[in-house]
Amino acid sequence: MMPYAVLNMVRVFLSYAVMLVFAAWAYQRHFTVGAAALFSLLYVFAFVPLPKVRLWKRLLYITLAVVPLMIVPLVHSAVFYRVGSLNVFWEGVEIMFLAGLLGPQYMVFLLTYVVLEFLIVKKFASTQDRGRI
Questions:
Q1: Which of 5, 54, 93, 121 could be bridged to 49 by S-S, CB 3.0 to 4.6 A?
Q2: Which UniProt keywords apply (predicted)?
Q3: d(CA 118, CA 6)
Q4: Helices (DSSP H) in 81-132: which residue ranges?
Q5: 24, 31 Cβ separation under 8 angstroms
């Protein structure tokens, strides 16, 4: 379990790096540190090591984890902002949600995650199995 957790962490960090480089290139002057932090926060569930769960289920879990994480800014706005400014804030959250979940950087993140699954995790697991025989 421990080698898988380390390999998963390496895979996710590499996926984040590729995604953020792509987002910086794709959004150029609209790319900010805040947007990068939000995009990175949305896919935090990818760090959970689930070695026995199939790849398509892990991708589904990563995608479904975005929804509760987007509720946090809504609760924050309801508590700390006036009711009149909620419409402007809601539009911003809605745009960030759509950009974070349906934007091209999400597809780049998932593609990198899947490719690294086969390049790093599966390859390392097969060499570990050969060592036990």
A1: 5
A2: Membrane, Transmembrane, Transmembrane helix
A3: 15
A4: 86-102, 104-116, 122-132
A5: yes
Structure-block tokens of residue 6: 């380390």
Q: Which two tokens stand for residue 15?
A: 């996926």
Alpha carbon distance 133, 129 (integer Å)? 7
Q: pLDDT tens digits for the chain (133 residues)?
A: 568 888 889 999 999 999 889 988 888 877 777 777 777 777 888 888 888 899 999 999 888 887 777 666 666 656 665 555 555 555 555 566 666 666 788 889 999 999 999 888 777 766 655 555 4
Q: Whole-prediction pTM value?
A: 0.73
| Residue type, position 25, single letter | W
CA distances from 125 to 5, 97, 113 (A): 12, 35, 16
Q: Do residues 101 and 59 make contact, with C-beta atoms less than 8 angstroms apart?
A: no
